[in-house]
Amino acid sequence: MKIGELARRTGLAASRIRFYESIGLLRLVERQTNGYRSYPEEAILVLKLIISAQQAGFSLDELRTLLPQDLSTWQHGKLLDTLHAKVRDIEALQQRLAQSKTHLLALIGEIESKPEDIDCAANARRVLAKINP
């Protein structure tokens, strides 16, 4: 299939497909004698895997090492190890985000509890004194 049809079937722009090809993520391309790209049906699956993995938080570099040359050579154990590692990364990020949220909510509470008899600058000094002793 040509790149236009592949773009239509995956919802990606042709430029995005060419980008994935240029960085080595999409290897399933043949050049016809007229210079046009020709993609097999499997390219749809590969592109959908790339999109799904990016939405799950995988970087392009991570995807480059994860995707095999040919999907039939995918190593089950390596794939599971990589997916489990990504879940651990996400859990660690969630923990850091929860801590950041708690810190920000405490800061908001301090700012909002401004005594009536002080101005904003004095309140800022009061709040900063509490977080930077």
What does this structure look like?
65% of the residues lie in helices and 3% in strands. The model has no long low-confidence stretch (mean pLDDT 88). A two-stranded antiparallel ribbon has the order 1-2. The protein has two domains: 1-58, Orthogonal Bundle (Multidrug-efflux Transporter Regulator, Chain: A, Domain 2); 75-133. A hairpin with a 5-residue loop joins strand 1 (30-31) and strand 2. The chain has six helices and two strands; from the N terminus they run H-H-E-E-H-H-H-H. It is mainly alpha-helical.
Q: Indicate the percent of residues in helices.
A: 55-70%
- Characterize the main sheet: 2 strands, antiparallel
Spatial shape:
elongated
Tally of distinct domains: 2
Protein traits:
133 residues, mainly alpha, Multidrug-efflux Transporter Regulator, Chain: A, Domain 2, 2 domains, 6 helices, 3% strand
